Amino acid sequence: MSQIQRDEAYQALHESQALLLEKNLELALLTNVDGLTGLSNRRHFDELLGVRWRQAVREQTAFSILMIDVDSFKPYNDTYGHLAGDEVLKQVAEAIRTCCRRPTDLAARFGGEEFIVCFSATSPDRAQEFAEKIRAAVEAVTIPHTGSAAGTVTVSIGVAWEQPCRGESSLPLIDAADVAMYEAKHSGKNRTMLQERHRASLEVP
User: Fold this and answer.
1) What's the pLDDT score for residue 127?
2) Residues near 106 by beta carbon (within 8 Å), at least 6 away in sequence
3) Catalytic residue annotation
4) Residue 184's pLDDT is what?
5) What is the largest CA-CA distance in the chain?
6) Nearest partner of 118 among 60, 51, 73, judged by Cα
7) pLDDT at 90
8) Residue 184: in which H helix or E strand, if any?
9) Successive 10-residue mean pLDDT values, the chain, 205 residues
10) Is there a single domain that holds both residue 17 and residue 51?
11) Residues 108 and 14 grouped into a single domain
12) Helical axes 73-80 vs 82-99, angle rounded to 10°
């Protein structure tokens, strides 16, 4: 084999390896991303949550979870159709994404019309402010919704905050955020509710 042939074979091998790497990266992205909204999917969120939680324990930083649910979503689908409902989920996801700009912010579609955000190194007040920022961002999209008291698509957000300790699981914090979210729903929707672990919930006016 001549030097030219060896060079051509090496170049072809290099291009093949680069293409394989690109395809593997695309596949990894597809398995980590929710196909409808473009946010992380539930499986990827669970994986990264474990990493972030252990890091917060090591560094002794606070940890917050936001549970976000689209208000009156079933009536929206019943009125406007499921394709329109999918568009709502995309726009809500985009509003969440625009608010989650820090490297430590992790946003995902939790399932159905529910979304979840986790972030670290913050106080309860800052966590609540962040939740209110997301709530306002969704409201500002002004998607018409005749079945909503606000007249537009809104979200209710449960906020849970705690200082992780070694040996603890993050699951109780997710449960606390879920409880806070349902309290926000029962209190009138389109609002945020904070639940600091081992402390009563507080409502944002």
Assistant:
1) 92
2) 40, 45, 48, 49, 52, 100, 117, 118, 119
3) 113
4) 96
5) 79
6) 51
7) 97
8) helix 171-186
9) 65 59 47 91 91 88 94 96 96 96 91 93 88 97 93 96 85 94 95 71 39
10) no
11) no
12) 130
Structure tokens at 181: 């979210």
**CA–CA separation, 148 vs 58, rounded Å?**
44
Q: Which token pair is 163? A: 């200082």
Q: Cα separation of 126 and 19, whole Å? A: 44
Please tell me whether residues 46 and 121 are part of one structural domain. yes
Angle at which helices 82-99 and 124-141 cross, to 10°: 140
Token pair for residue 132?
Answer: 């209110």
In angstroms, the CA 11 to CA 188 distance is 64
Instruction: Estimate to the nearest angstrom the gap between the alpha carbon of 156 and the chain centroid.
Output: 14
Asked whether the beta carbons of 156 and 190 are under 8 A apart, the reply is yes
Number of H helices, E strands in the chain: 6, 6
Domain of 14, in residue numbers: 1-32
Burial class (CB in 10 A: 0-12, 13-18, 19+), 7: exposed
